[in-house]
Every structure is written in C-alpha cells, then in structure tokens.
Amino acid sequence: MKNTHILAAAEAPARRTRPPRVNWRTLAPSVENLRTQGYSTRETARRLGLNVKTLEAHLRRHRLRHAIPLDRPDQVRRNCLNCDSAFVADGRFLRLCPECRAMFG
C-alpha cells in the first residue's frame, strides 16, 4: 500500500509545453518596418493580425516605445482624428495630420 504513491508519481505523464503563439523572430522585421513608416501600435497590430495588447506588451517588454522619434520637446505624437494615421503635431492643439488639414483647410 505504501508503494502506490511512488508508482503513481513514476507513471505521471510528462508535462506538455505549448509552442509560442507568436513567433516574434519572423514578425520583428515587419513590426520594425511598419513602426518606422509611422504606423501606430493599433494599426501595426491590425496589419499583422495580432491583438493590440499582445503587441503593446511585446514592445513594452523590449522597450520599443514610439514609432516616430521627436525632434523638439514641443512636438506631440498624435493619431489623426480623420484618417487615424500617426503623425507628429507641431503644437499641442493639432489633431489632424497635414494631409487632412490641407483637405479641410
């Protein structure tokens, strides 16, 4: 009777490990390409077929913050309210990208 727990432990099936859901080695060039083109995290995730939170977590873990580098401290990263493209606003009140401003202005 006291040997049954030893036999049960020895016959336990091996723990299954699942493969990673996202292969970041193959996606990294695509992510980097889209980010350097100025796409937002949401748009990058949509184009790659990923969940936005998955991509945000990956970028946060690897400290890859923003797609568009800022030149001056008064510049602000924005997404256009009309076309949802990423752009750098020269002032804090600008909400439309230059193309949409030209179209509406």
How are the elements arranged and paired?
Elements: H1 4-10, H2 24-36, H3 41-48, H4 52-61, E1 76-79, E2 86-89, H5 98-104
Antiparallel strand pairs: 1-2
Helix pairs in contact: 2-3, 3-4
Polypeptide structure, described:
The protein is mostly helical. The protein folds into two domains: 24-67; 70-105, no CATH class. It is built from five helices and two strands. The protein has helices spanning 4-10, 24-36, 41-48, 52-61, 98-104, and strands at residues 76-79, 86-89. It is elongated and about 85 Å long. 11% of the residues are buried. InterPro entries: Sig_transdc_resp-reg_C-effctor. One of its GO terms (biological process) is regulation of DNA-templated transcription.
